[in-house]
């Protein structure tokens, strides 16, 4: 038998592994998981009924074109049907965008730290990641990102609000940046947390895309809509980009259960807005509590907050876990804490208060 191994692509060497939020330990002291940006509420009204009905026929392939959902999205956002493309969560669509635009020798620009999937999906395509550091205020340095553009740049991610810092880019800065980007470079406005924004100066990416053929907007049903486990997201982009997304999609990747759940969720908007409003109120309470304890907390427009802890990051995460909540540490940088149930947030605030006194 040969001792040689199959040849794999050299680009796979050194690709970081995506690290999901740590789950709550079964039978252990941890009661609340604040390590993944999940919605603590159950599915919206009508969703379980739609999923249950769809489950009766999951011996059949799902609708490849996601026809019903695409029509709903087109009507909801006032865009042509041809400008909608769906995928397995916004991260799945993001990977399709990199595949459609970038290969060996090409460059993909994004802020850092930002969504940890960006370097993974960039390197999988063989492209070179160009990471532009966040400044002290934790907001994208769009001037530095514009200066990083070269003739090899094919795609730029702007995560707005940014994961994991929660900070958001405002309209004037974003429009000035978009004016500087060459028309043949695709700018992806990753708006996975759009529903949680309360700053009126943070623009809706879909309004910006309408007059800019090189702008694509990513959205997801995983966060505000609470469908994280069904893996469904979508892009709004002009026809050439949307068509490329359909070409790079995994056939039948979005299950019929996910499609029906997304449609039902869109139709439960009043309930959705109420839940999001409650989470925003909790976010504001947590931020005010932390600042009252003496913490420096960036202004979050998402369903999580960020504490830059540096070398104290892992110790802080361990202290939280000991008291019953799991947070998401980024070693040497900081922790991201999802806004969860009020009880979970209370525990977190108590741990933060005690930890801050020991610093």
UniProtKB/TrEMBL annotation:
Matching InterPro entries: Aminotrans_II_pyridoxalP_BS, Aminotransferase_I/II_large, ArAT, HisP_aminotrans, HistidinolP_aminotransfase, PyrdxlP-dep_Trfase, PyrdxlP-dep_Trfase_major, PyrdxlP-dep_Trfase_small
Keyword Transferase: yes
Keywords, comma-separated and alphabetical: Aminotransferase, Pyridoxal phosphate, Transferase
Coiled coil location: none
EC number annotated for this UniProt entry: 2.6.1.57
Domain of life, per lineage: Bacteria
Domain Aminotransferase class I/classII large residue range list: 33-349
Gene3D superfamilies noted in UniProt: Aspartate Aminotransferase, domain 1, Type I PLP-dependent aspartate aminotransferase-like (Major domain)
Reaction catalyzed: an aromatic L-alpha-amino acid + 2-oxoglutarate = an aromatic oxo-acid + L-glutamate
GO biological process, one term: L-histidine biosynthetic process
Ranges of compositional bias, category Basic and acidic residues: 1-12
Key word Transferase present: yes
List of residues that carry N6-(pyridoxal phosphate)lysine: 223
Cofactor(s) for this UniProt protein: pyridoxal 5'-phosphate
MF GO annotations: aromatic-amino-acid transaminase activity; histidinol-phosphate transaminase activity; pyridoxal phosphate binding
UniProt-annotated stretches for the region Disordered: 1-20
Enzyme class: transferase
Subunit structure: Homodimer.
PANTHER family named among the record's database cross-references: HISTIDINOL-PHOSPHATE AMINOTRANSFERASE, HISTIDINOL-PHOSPHATE AMINOTRANSFERASE 2
HAMAP family noted in UniProt: HisC_aminotrans_2, Phe_aminotrans_2
Function per UniProt: Aminotransferase that catalyzes the conversion of aromatic amino acids and 2-oxoglutarate into corresponding aromatic oxo acids and L-glutamate.
UniProt family annotation: Belongs to the class-II pyridoxal-phosphate-dependent aminotransferase family.
Protein name in the entry: Aromatic amino acid aminotransferase
Lineage: Bacteria, Bacillati, Actinomycetota, Actinomycetes, Kitasatosporales
């Amino acid at each position: 038998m040969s001792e040689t191994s199959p040849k794999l692509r050299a680009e796979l060497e050194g690709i970081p592994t995506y690290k999901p939020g740590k789950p709550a330990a079964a039978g252990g002291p941890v009661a609340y998981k604040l390590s993944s940006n999940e919605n603590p509420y159950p599915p919206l009204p009508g969703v379980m009924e739609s999923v249950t009905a769809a489950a009766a026929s999951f011996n059949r392939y799902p609708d490849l074109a996601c026809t019903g959902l695409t029509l709903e999205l087109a009507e909801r956002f006032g865009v042509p049907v041809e400008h909608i493309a769906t995928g397995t969560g916004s991260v799945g669509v993001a990977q399709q965008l990199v595949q459609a635009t970038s290969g060996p020798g090409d460059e993909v620009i994004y802020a850092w730290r930002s969504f940890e999937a960006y370097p993974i999906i960039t390197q999988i395509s063989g492209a070179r990641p160009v990471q532009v550091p966040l400044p002290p205020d934790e907001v994208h340095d769009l001037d530095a990102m514009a200066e990083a553009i070269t003739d090899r740049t094919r795609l730029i991610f702007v995560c707005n609000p940014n994961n994991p810092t929660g900070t958001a880019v405002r309209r004037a800065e974003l429009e000035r940046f978009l004016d500087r980007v060459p028309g043949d470079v695709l700018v992806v406005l990753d708006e996975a947390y759009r529903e949680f924004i309360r700053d009126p100066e943070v623009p809706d990416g879909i309004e910006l895309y309408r007059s800019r053929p090189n702008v694509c907007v990513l959205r997801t049903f995983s966060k505000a809509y609470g469908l994280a486990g069904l893996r469904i997201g979508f892009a709004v982009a002009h026809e050439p980009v949307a068509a490329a997304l359909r070409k790079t999609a995994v056939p039948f990747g979005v299950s019929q259960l996910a499609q029906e759940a997304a449609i039902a969720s869109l139709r439960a908007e009043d309930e959705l807005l109420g839940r999001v409003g409650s989470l925003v109120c909790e976010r504001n309470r947590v931020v005010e509590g932390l600042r009252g304890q003496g913490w420096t907390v960036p202004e979050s427009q998402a369903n999580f907050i960020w504490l830059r802890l540096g070398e104290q990051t892992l110790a802080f995460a361990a202290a939280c876990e000991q008291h019953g909540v799991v947070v998401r540490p980024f070693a040497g940088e900081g922790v991201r804490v999802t806004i969860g149930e009020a009880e979970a947030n209370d525990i977190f605030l108590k741990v933060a208060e005690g930890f801050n006194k020991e610093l």
